[in-house]
Here is the input.
Amino acid sequence: MSELNIGLARRTHAWDLPPKDAIQLQEQLRTRVISSSLADESIQYVAGIDVGFPRNREIAHAAIVLLKYPSMELVDQGLAELPVSMPYVPGLLSFREIPVILAALEEITLTPDLLITDSQGIAHPRRFGLACHLGVLLDMPAIGCAKSILVGKHSTLRKMRGSTADLVDNGETIGSVVRTRDGVKPVYISIGHRVDLTSAVRIILNCGSGYRLPEPTRWAHKLASKKS
Here is the structure.
C-alpha cells in the first residue's frame, strides 16, 4: 500500500489536538482540496470505508471493503481496531476516525482508485469533512456519501431513483442530495478530493444495487458494525 503514502499521512500532523488547533488545521488543509472530473475508465477498484464503535466509544473499529468498479464484485477487505485519540467533537470526526482507517487500509493488498467514506466531504462547516481530510492526506480521489446532513439546505426531492437536489449553504453549493432508490431517504454526496460533484453523483449511482447506500459503504458498514 505504499502508493497511498499511509506512513506519510500518519506523520503529517498529530491526531490528538485540542479542538481549537484541530479547527485551525482544517482551515489550512482545506485549501489543498482539488475538484476535478473523474472518468469511469480511470476507476478499477473502489474502497468503501466505515468506522464503528462495537464495544464502547473509546475503541474504533474500521472496515475497508474493496470492490471492482462498476461490477461491485468483492475483491478484498481490511479491518483494524484502535483506541481513539480524541473525544467526539462535532465537525472534527476525522481526527477521531482517520487513524484507524489508515490502519485498516494497510490490511488490503490492492490499491484503490477511489475512496468512498460514510461521512462528509466539503458539506461541512469548514468545507473539510473526513472525506476531504483522508483524500488530501493520501492524495487520492475521495467522495463523501453521508446518511444525514451536517450543514446546508435543499429543495424538495422527487421520489424516483436518480433524483437530485443541490445542497446549499450560505449561497454555496456544497453537495448533492441523491435518491438512490425509489421512495427511500436520500444520501448526501459531496466531493472529498480529486473529484467533482457531477462525477461523484454518477459514481455513487453506479455503485448502487437496489439499496439506499452504495455497495462499498454498505458492505463496509456491515463489517465495521460487527462485534470483534
